[in-house]
Each structure stands twice: as C-alpha cells, then as structure tokens.
Design goal:
- The protein is α/β, with parallel strands linked by helices.
- Helices cover 44% and strands 14% of the residues.
- It has twelve helices and ten strands.
- The strands form two sheets. Strands 1-10-7-6-5-4-3-2 form an eight-stranded parallel sheet. It has a two-stranded antiparallel sheet with strand order 8-9.
- The longest helix is centred in the first third of the chain and has 21 residues.
- The chain is globular.
- The N and C termini lie far apart (35 Å).
Length: 308
Amino acid sequence: MPALLDAIAAGPVVLDGGLGTHLETRGNSVASALWSAKLLRDRPDEVKAAHRDFFAAGARVATTCSYQVTYEGFASEGADRDEVDALLRSSVEIARRARSEAGLTPEQAWVAASIGPYGASPGQGTEYTGDYDLDVDGLRRWHRPRLEALAASGPDALLFETVPALDEVEAICRELAGSGAAALLSVTVGTGGALRTGASLTDVADWADRTQEIRAVGVNCASLRDADTAIRTLSERTAKPLIAYPNTGETWDPASRSWFGDAAPIDAYVEGWLDRGVRLIGGCCRVTTGDIERIAECVGRWATPSPR
C-alpha cells in the first residue's frame, strides 16, 4: 500500500489549495482555455514554486498541474500526443521536485496526479453541468490514455477530480477495476449535495465501495454548504476515507472566465468534517495558501489530544 494511504489510515492529511488561484497570485495569467495547464508547458518553474508554497503553508499533498492537460486541448496549441504525454509525466516530476525543495521526504508528503473530468477539456464549464456528448464506453476511451500516462509516472495516487456525472463515475470505476491502482475519486456537487447532473451521491458511494482501486471518495469544487451536505451523505453510505476540498463559495462564469460572489472561510467546517471521516482535506478554486495554513492548524488541533 502506498505511503499516502498508510498516512490517511493513521489520520487526516492536508491537501493543497487552488493551484490556478495561487499561480495568479504569483503574477501569472490562467485566463486561457488551457487554464494552468498552459503554464506547465510555458513556465514549469512557476508551477514548481506554487507547489512549494503550498507545502510551506502546511499541505502534505501536491495535486499535479495536469487537470486540464488533454490531447484535444493541446492539439489546438500545436502539440502532438507525445508532447502531451511528456507534459503529463513532467507534472508529476515537478511536484516531486517541489516536495524535495520544501525539505520534505516521500514519507512526509505525497504527489497526487490530477485527472480532470471530460467536461474540463472543452474549457466551457461543462464540468459544472455534466452536459456530456459521450456515453460510459466513450468516457472510458477518453480517460484511458491520460490515466495510463499518469499511472506510469509513479505518483502516490491518481486523483480523479471534479467529476459531475454518474456516467463518468461509472466509466472511471470500470476503467480502474482490476488494475490495482491507488486512486482517489472526488465529485463536484450542486444545490442539495447531489451531483451536478442531479444524480444521487448514494450511487457514487456504491460505485466507490465495489471498486477496490478507489481508496477514498469525496467532493471538491463546490460551495461549502453543498460540500457539507455531500460529506454528510457520503459518511452515511461508505466506510472508505472521505475527501473534502471545496472552493470558497464563489461561482465560475465560463463566458467571462471570472469568479463572482462572496467567499466564505473553510476552516469553520474542518472539525465537523474530520469527525465524519474526512481524511484528505484542503481547498479547490480560490483557496489560498493562507486558507491552507488555517486548515492545517485546525487539523493539528483536532489530531492532538487535549490535556486532561
């Protein structure tokens, strides 16, 4: 069993925050359709520095800059499949180098290879609707080459994230079944804590439970309130470790490629989520290094027994 899975069996582990958000804070533009993936090719040292900053803030898992590295997306930039495979591999290596530069060992911090959903590929926000033109078999074929390329690079875990539709959950689970991979599955939810398509999280939990390769299941890139509802549902349906890394509550407008609305503090929810079995906890879009510092402090207090 990989060391990351040993760690979450022993207690909660802090994830990083919004990689694109922090890259913007560092003065980079992520306004293109390729999001932060463009910086992986054009400014890899900035990606490494962003990972390093999150480690310094208390994160112990770096989520690679591969979420939106897709063959279709980079074809529009003139890249062939070999270059995309090389970018996927480099995303893992860059995170490893950031870990080393942060003074952390492979026993102290880990690398999760991000595999974004099909909906992220067009860059039109369909990861927030699940409005797909592929069925389960088509989604399996679409995910397969990225999954294989990232698995071959040797991350501590594969992280399927921001999955909005039950068909995609099924496709991922079917593609993983029998592979022996160490995988994490995180879905995105809307109002009431259901998948963005309206499907029930009980079905997500059922797929996770019958897929040995899914080692933890949870929710990301949703408002705090909706994430809280989702965590409550999942905690009642599965005994697997849970994942929680919501955004700050703001809403993404794909037309203007900007966020609007008011942010809310994540740390107010941390203790309750840990009590419900969350073992990987951090933040998604708009979550800063400062937010991760506060989450890490909450996790430290929760994990330290009070003196009698």
